[in-house]
Amino acid sequence: MDADPIRQTDDDDIFDFAMALVQNRTIEECYDLLDRITSESINARDSQGYTRLEWATAFSRRDFRSYLITKGATPTGNQFHRNVLFIALQYVNQNWNETLDGFSPETIDFSGANAMNDTALHLALYGAKWGFVTAILDQPESDDVNTVNSSEETPLHLAAKSKCGIRTFDEIVRRTTRDKINAFDAYGYTALHWAAASERSAKKIQSLLDKGADVNAQDKGDGNTALHLVLMKKSITGAEQLLKCDNLDVNVKATRRWTALHQAAAWSNVPADLFKKILQKSCDVNAKTILGRTALHLALRKRSATATDELLSCGYNQKGPVVNVDVGDGHGKTALHYAAQWPDIPPPLFNAILDNTIDLNAKEKTRGLTALHLAIDAQSETAITQLLKHEKVDVNVEDNQKRTATHLMDSWPDMPPDLHLLMNIRLQKLNDTPDHEHSIGQDVSVGGFK
Question: Membrane spanning segments where (predicted)?
Fold first, then answer.
């Protein structure tokens, strides 16, 4: 969030003018833009309440200032110097320990707000001017920390999402009233959501939880909790910090019905201890997302050996295995279908799924593919080998295009010889069966072997 782009403006010409300054364009490059300024618009204000002259002054652009003054620009109102400071705080790129073109933090009146109700504290946080943030907080306490701007943001929202140091963050948290701790901004996030999605999330998360932040609050857009967000960001420390909270509910479903377990399963290299903690707190390991995917489906799809192993090892209850490998997603794909598409799946994981699957020849709904079709398509030697060795796997099942496994293997030019051999052994057994009828109406063999 360092020196962010111009937030918004009602006047496109002022926006373009401000962007020219932010981009450090020369005045010669901006003559077309400057020529559009009229005597009526020379002192116009943008939606933040700033004039062009204030923008030019904040960026120390004497060339633009001189041009504007010759066109009739004047420092209007008592807020001229304040607005210059406000612009500099948010948009001028300078190190935190430098003054802003003559402004000294010790001698500035930081009171007031711009037209979007941003205080100096909001703007210093937006612009990552940490020295000025400290100077503002060092002043006698005021209600600036609890001021809400036009984006419904308090300084706490901005501190949570920025690279704000933890000491400064803790001070802002301390001075934020409890009714603002769980406030949502216009983006649908609380400060805890922003902290979970930011760097240094663990310490910020703990600081907010200590002040009473709702650990299970769901954002207004996707319905994610802070735990969903730290798992998306793959923040180990952030996730561990949240999992220490007694009130944490890992079973909260986001808008697309993802629980924390789904999110952890989709993390390809999720730490085993972290996954176990979430798994142990989960009440339904077979819960489906809006696309019908279980945590096991996602673990296999993202090729997470850790998550797959933990899910398959979580034991049995009175109804059978806790994890149901036969559950199909919205397209009818079971765990076996997903496992078959993992080219280098560890054999023990594949066999665990294979041995517990009821229908080894089930077809997914989109193309009518079996696990064997998918394994050949993915060129997964492990899956093909184990499937061909299993007597219940039917090598003559056709997909929606009337293709059997042998057709697909014929289109694999450099298929390993041992797979050729396995397939031909299966086909020979079928040919040797008296009552067998060839589903493809001809001698069956692979790669020219008869």
Answer: none
Backbone angles phi, psi at 65, to 5 degrees: -60, -45
Q: Is 89 helix (H, G, I), strand (E, B) or coil?
A: helix
User: What number of helices (H) and strands (E) belong to the chain?
Assistant: 24, 2
Cβ-count burial 247-265 (b if 16+ within 10 Å, e if not): ebebebbbeeebbbbbbbb
DSSP for 232-267, written as a single string: HTT-HHHHHHHHT-TT--TT---TT---HHHHHHT-
Written in H, E and C, the secondary structure of 146-211 is: HCCCCCCCCHHHHHHHCCCCHHHHHHHHHHCCHHHHCCCCCCCCCHHHHHHCCCCHHHHHHHHHHC
Q: What is the pLDDT of residue 440?
A: 41
H or E element in which residue 6 lies: none
| SS3 state of residue 5 | coil
By the 10 Å C-beta count (0-12 exposed, 13-18 middle, 19+ buried), 414 is classed as exposed
pTM: 0.88
Please check the confidence at residue 99 and state whether its pLDDT lies above 80. no
Instruction: For residue 139, give its domain range.
Output: 1-146
- Angle formed at CA 41 by CA 37 and CA 44, multiple of 5 degrees: 125
Torsion, Cα 105 107 113 115, to 10 degrees, reads -90
**What is the CATH classification number for the domain harbouring 350?**
1.25.40.20
Confirm whether 423 is domain-assigned. yes
Of 70, 73, 64, the closest CA to residue 27 belongs to 64
pLDDT of 415-427, one tens digit each? Answer: 999 998 999 888 8
Confirm if 375 and 383 have CB atoms less than 8 A apart: yes
Which of 113, 146, 179 is at the close of a domain?
A: 146
For the chain, how far is it from start to end, CA to CA, in angstroms? Answer: 67
In-domain check, residue 238: no
Q: Give the bridge partners for 103, in sequence order.
A: 100
pLDDT the model gives residue 448: 36
What are the tens digits of pLDDT across the range 12-31? 779 999 999 999 999 999 99
Give me 71's structure tokens. Answer: 């066109």
The candidate with the shortest Cα–Cα distance to 264, out of 314, 226, 228, is 228
Structure-token pair, residue 281: 């707190």
Q: Residue written as tokens 């620009």?
A: 73
Q: Is residue 66 part of a domain?
A: yes
Name the domain count of the chain: 2
pLDDT for residue 105: 57
The residue from 129, 146, 163 where one domain ends is 146
Report phi then psi at 8, rounded to 5. Answer: -170, 160
Contacts of 112 by beta carbon, 8 Å cutoff, 6+ apart:
79, 82, 119, 120
Length of the chain: 450
